[in-house]
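Protein details
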Amino acid sequence: MPLRWTRHQRNVAFAVLLLLPAIALMSLTIVSPLFKSVFMSFTDYSLLDPEYRWNELKHYRELLQSAEFYHSLGITLLYVVITVLIDLLIGLVMSLLLNRNIRFRAFFRSIVMIPWAIPTIVTALIFMWIYQNDYGVLNYTLVHLGITKENINWLNSIDYALGSIIVVAVFRQMPLVAVMLLAGLQSISQSLYEAAKIDGASGWKLFTNVTLPLLKPVITSVTLIMVVNNFQMFTLFFTLTGGGPLDATRSLAILTYETAFSKYELGKGSAIGVIWLILLFAFSVVFTRLMNKGSDQ
């Protein structure tokens, strides 16, 4: 008897066939390099000595006792926390404004995504000119307005370098946060606001008792996306400061790059990446559970 598939089995087979190219591509570009990096982190593999020799967790023991690693981790955490908080705050305000019935609302919704559409490297180069010590428009404006008496070397100052990078990151990422939160706001039924107004709620109470609770799932998703994106931010740090001055902006991404490709220690660089991955995974699990627990209550 010939084998005959049911309609459901044919649909499943067709879906698997369509997914195979994507699965193969992900396996080659993500899954395979990930497993190779994890394996490499347990070896002394180096570009100068390309042999896989088991090192009994030497890289992990060195990193967990390294002041250099903890310094880079601290810089990264500080950058991520400040950037994500500012992104969420400004993005929420922008989304609330764009959700209101204002003039030229469609126009503002269109142009708000322009900073996000610009490639990160282009944004970094633009701000390098803005921050330029002698001829930058920022110093020119501040001096002529009398806010500062002399030019500030924004990208080569220990006090200002990290803050300067955070400003660029917020400028580029905030539009995406605003649009995602705007999509969440538009999914909230107006009947809920009308019912709350009938019960006497208005202004701040509407925001805290209706908008924020219903927007919480979107805020959770946006926060996770922004944390992951900023934790692995390399382009802005490398282009604007290269990790300087005096390692003031030496993030984990910069440390990984220098270890793997400047010192040629691919095994140790992979170990940094694995610790990095574990930290992000742990944060994602804990943060998601805390937010879900708060929603259940």
In short: The chain is about 75% helix and 0% strand. Residues 67-296 form a domain with the MetI-like fold fold (CATH 1.10.3720.10).
